[in-house]
Amino acid sequence: MLPFSEQIPSRGVYSYKNPLFFDLLDHCYQIVMVSLNIPTILRSNVEESQSNLTPIPPHSAQRQETMNKHIPSIAMLTVLLSPPLQAQSTQYETAILAGGCFWCVESDYEKLDGVVDAISGYTDGHLDMPSYEEVSMGDSGHIEAVEVIYDPKRVSYEEILDYYWRHIDPTRDDGQFCDRGEQYRPVIFYRGSKQKAAAYQSLSRIRQNKPFAEQIKVELKPVATFYPAEEYHQDYYLKNPVRYQYYRYACRRDQRVESLWGSH
Asked: Which residues are catalytic?
């Protein structure tokens, strides 16, 4: 994974999955090969008749004319290959939060403006590189959690926490919603003194202003090693929308949240 200062939002406009990018890349590659008198390297799945390019003699007027003609395409390719200025200058920060099923927590945070990415994973256990099966059994000591990567210029850590409270059931410490066990309990993992102070202040405000009578049972702890979950868990709500929505509805997650906090 790239350093946070170099990461680009995975669903942003600067996506290298755009077909236009590959078409332009291939087009400019051929231009450069021909203009520099370098033999074209043919790919195995392209017919030779489609790749029959005639090299242009060095220092010829034809070469200069060809280069001038395609300068806009090359310039566009340079723009596409260059990281956006925002990604170069932004220092992203992280918050690690546990609120039950990480599919749901990840899904909720990826809807929050200012969040760059949310990664499902495991933390706070005694095994290295735990598997989903080991965590689910409750024997590894890990908790399902989400690493939230966010742009502090667009959303603050305090706002990340405010959002957290209103998307979980903070009255339970034996699991969340239909998931039972310590591996599903709610925890705020703070990093450093600044996040610690903000977390305790947030907890104090919630205790004073909560719209329900039950006690707050969310734990506050320093961060531990965070292990990203298996790839099939990442963006599960996008990869398996029907199964995800059925699970979330059957767990009555949204219904319980609304009964505690009211409509969002």
From this structure: 101
